[in-house]
Amino acid sequence: GLIADNLNQNLWIYTADCMPILFADKKNKIVAAIHCGRAGLEQKIIFNVITKLEKLNSKRENLIVAIGPSISKDNYLFEQSDFLNFLKKINMDTSLHPLIKNNKKSKSRRLLPIDLNFFAYLQLINSNIPAENIEISNKCTFLNHNEFHSWRRSKTQKRQWSFISS
To answer: What is the Cα–Cα distance from 133 to 129, expressed in whole angstroms?
Structure first.
């Protein structure tokens, strides 16, 4: 992730299936850009960048957050054990998750979807970012092959660039 606290700075982040997440402090003209996927969610990169922005005098209620195109949950599937491990790492009570409750004894569906956008949104809400300050793209990098590069679709080294300016 990157943070700019000077005027007229551009931050660029590149992603394929992970989420580009852009932060702007509308009052102090501070911006941040992070590359966030499953590992970033597990490592709490969203909370960490918000904490760093606060050290630069940003207020959570002044932050505007945009989550760019990423892989959709229908195309990001994991074995149930890996899914459970992910939920534990992000401190979510696995007994409450509907996919686990409905799938405990089922052997027919072994792969479960991880909705990166949803879990990023939850981390933002749990960090007291107002819901009306969060915008999420519904474009899937895996499905939209004419618009986006996807590692999981084609194993390409190509990426999308996202940027924000202070």
So the answer is: 7
- The CA distance from 76 to 113, in Å, is 6
39: left (phi over 0), alpha (psi -120 to 50) or beta: alpha
Q: What is the pTM of this model?
A: 0.88
Dihedrals φ, ψ of 142, to 5°? -70, -45
Partners of 63 in the β-ladder: 25
Tokens 């479960």 correspond to 112
Element (H, E) at 112: strand 111-113
Q: pLDDT tens for residues 3-26?
A: 999 888 999 999 999 999 999 998
Residues 16 and 1 sit within 8 Å (Cβ to Cβ): no
